[in-house]
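The protein record quoted in full:
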Amino acid sequence: MFTEEHEQLRQTVRQFVEREINPHVDQWERDGIYPARELMAKLGKLGLLGITKPVAFDGLGLDYSYQLVFAEEIGAAHCGGVPLSIGVQTDMATPALARFGSDALRRQYLAPAIRGEMVAAIGVSEPGAGSDVSAINTTARSDGDHYVINGSKMWITNATQADFLCLLANTCEGPAHSNKSLIIVPMDTAGISLSAKLDKLGMRSSDTAQIFFDEVRVPKTNRVGDEGAGFTLQMLQFQEERLFGAAMCIRMLENCITQTITYAGQRQAFGQAILDNQSVHFRLAELQTEVECLRALVYRATAAHIKGEQVTTLASMAKLKGGRLCREVTDACLQYWGGMGFMWDNPVSRAYRDQRLCSIGGGADEVMLTIICKAMGTLPGRR
C-alpha cells in the first residue's frame, strides 16, 4: 500500500512528534491542557491537517492511506490526549464539512481548520446520550433564516480552545434518525457557555468540557448538508473517526511492549531478569502478534475505504479490536513493571489510563458488537 511518498510523510510526522510533542508532554499532562492553537498552527504549516481534504480548500487531496500513516505516527506521542485532540480536528469534526458543506461554509471554516488557524470540536455526546446518538435532546428550532439552539453537549474534546463546533441537533419533529442536522457553530456566539475543565481518569493533556446552549442563534447557511440528514452524515463521519482511532492505537501499543521489554530485561527478581521468565517473553510475543493482527485489519479496512466500499463493519471491527487491545496490552505490560507500574508518571500506567477511553469514546464496544451482529444477521428478529 505504501509508496516513497507515504514514507516521506511518515518521517515528517515522526519528527514532528519527537520534536514538537514528546518533549512537552509531561508538562501538558500536569497542566491538564496543551496549547492547541499553537500546535495546530505548526501542523497546518506542514499540511498535516488536511491530508485527505479538497485541494480547493487548502487540503492535499490524497487518499486515506496517507491519513492512515499520519494516524499511526501521531499515536507514537507519549500521551493519548494530544493525538486524540488532533484526531478530532482531522477525522471527527471536519469530514462531513469537507464532503457535504457548501463552498462558502468550507471557505469560512474548513480551510482555516486545515491551515491550523482554527481549532475544531465535535458536538454529539450529551449527558444522556453517549453511544446512543439517536437519543440526543439538543434542539435547533427554525426561526426565519436562523436556527436557535438550546441544550448541552458533554465530554467535548477541545471545548475550551475550539473556534467552532460541528454540532448535531434535532432540527424538526419526527423519527430520531431523520430529524437531526449537522450545524457549524462558532464558539464565540452569544448564549454559549462552558463548564470547568472536566477532571478525567486519562487523556489529561487534552481539554474537555461540557458546553451549554441558551438561545444560540446560528444562520441556516451553517448547516452541513440537507436538513434532517444529520444522523446519516454523522454515521458516515464515524467511519473515519473509528479508522483513525484504531490506527492511532498501533504505535502506542508497540511502544508499551518495547518499553516493557527494556524494563523487564533490566529488572531482577530471584536471580534473573523478569524478561527471562518464559511466561513473560511468551506473553509479550502473543501481545505483539495481536497488535500485528490489528494493523492488518486496519490496513484492510483502509484499502476498502479508498475503493469507496462500505466499511462500517470493518471499521467497527477495527475500533472494537483496538479498544480491547488497549486494555489487554497495557494491563499485561503494567503487571511486568511491578510496583513501578503503579506509579502515576510511569509511561505504561499513563497509557493504561489514557487508552481505556478507546472502548468507550466514538461508540462503546457494545455498540461496535451490535453493528457487527447486524452485518452478520445474528440479532433477534434478523435471523
Notes: The two ends are 37 Å apart (CA to CA).
